[in-house]
From TrEMBL, chains A, B:
Pfam families: HTH_5 (PF01022). Keywords: DNA-binding, Transcription, Transcription regulation. Residues 8-106 form the HTH arsR-type domain. InterPro entries: ArsR-like_HTH, HTH_ArsR_DNA-bd_dom, HTH_MetalResp_TranReg, WH-like_DNA-bd_sf, WH_DNA-bd_sf. Signal peptide: none annotated. It comes from the Bacteria. Gene3D superfamilies: Winged helix-like DNA-binding domain superfamily/Winged helix DNA-binding domain. This is Metalloregulator ArsR/SmtB family transcription factor.
Length: 117, 117
DNA sequence: TTTATATATCGTAATATTGCAATATTAAAA
DNA sequence: TTTTAATATTGCAATATTACGATATATAAA
C-alpha cells in the first residue's frame, strides 16, 4: 500500500507523527540545528551549509515549513528562514507529557517470576 | 534516489533523525502511548488495541525496537513489550537542548526594516 | 501428540521519499 | 532592459515505507 491509514488514528497521534516524520531525516535535523545555532533568521545561503544540491534542500525546507517547524518569508531576493516556536512547542510538550508518564519503575509492575524487559 | 545520504551528516544528526523517523507514524505513536499509559510491560495483545492487521503491527513493533524506543522479551507464549527508557532519554535530551537554544527572542535579531518571519 | 494461540517472516502491491538535473520564477543589480 | 543571483518547481530514477495475505514458528493447552 504505502499510504498510512491516518483515518484510524486520533488528530493528536497524526499531528505528533507528522512533526516527528518531518524531523526524521538528518538533513532536516541539520537545518534545524543551524537555524537554532544562529539564533536569528537566516536570509539566504542555507544551501552552502549542507552537502546536498539546491533543489534537494529546497524540498527539505518545504517539508519543515509544511510541518510547522520553520517559517519562511520573502526578503527581496532571498528567503528568510527561522524556527517556528509554535511547532516546536507542540512536539516539546508531547515529549514532556510522555516522559513524565514514563518515570515510574516499570519493571516492578511486571511478573516478578520472569526477567521482564 | 530514495536513500538518505547519511554519510554526509554527523552521528548525532543521524541518531536523532532515526529516533524521530521511528516516531513518524501514527500507529507507532499509538503503540508508545499505549505502553506508557499502562505503566508496565504489555505481555501480548497490542494487536487488539490497534486498527491494523497483525503482521503490520508486528512490523511497527520491530521498527520501534530497532530504533531503541521499546524493548521486547519472550514470555512463554507471548511477548512482553515495554518502553526503552534509554532511547526516550536520548530524544528527550535532544529536545531540551534544542528548545533551550530557541528561547531567545529571534525577531529582535532580524533586520528591523523588514517583517522577518 | 494434536490443537489452539501469539507472534514473526515472506512476498508483494501500492504509494512515498530522496536526490538531482533541467528549468522556471522572481527580484536586485548593472 | 538585460543580466545576475537566489530560490522554487518539474520530471524522473532509485529506493524506502506501508499494509496485508499466506505461511512459518514456537509455546501452551487439551
Amino acid at each position: 500500500m504505502g499510504a498510512s491509514k491516518t483515518e484510524h488514528f486520533t488528530e493528536y497521534q497524526n499531528q505528533i507523527a507528522l512533526l516527528a516524520k518531518a524531523m526524521g531525516h538528518p538533513a532536516r535535523i541539520a537545518i534545524l540545528e543551524f537555524l537554532l545555532k544562529s539564533k536569528s533568521c537566516i536570509c539566504g545561503d542555507i544551501v552552502n551549509e549542507l552537502p546536498l544540491a539546491q533543489p534537494t534542500i529546497s524540498q527539505h525546507l518545504k517539508e519543515l515549513k509544511n510541518a510547522g517547524l520553520i517559517k519562511g518569508n520573502i526578503e527581496g531576493n532571498a528567503i528568510c528562514y527561522c524556527i517556528n516556536e509554535e511547532g516546536f512547542e507542540k512536539i516539546k510538550t508531547f515529549f514532556e507529557t510522555l516522559t513524565s508518564k514514563s518515570n515510574s519503575n516499570l519493571s516492578s509492575e511486571c511478573n516478578p517470576n520472569e526477567t521482564c524487559c
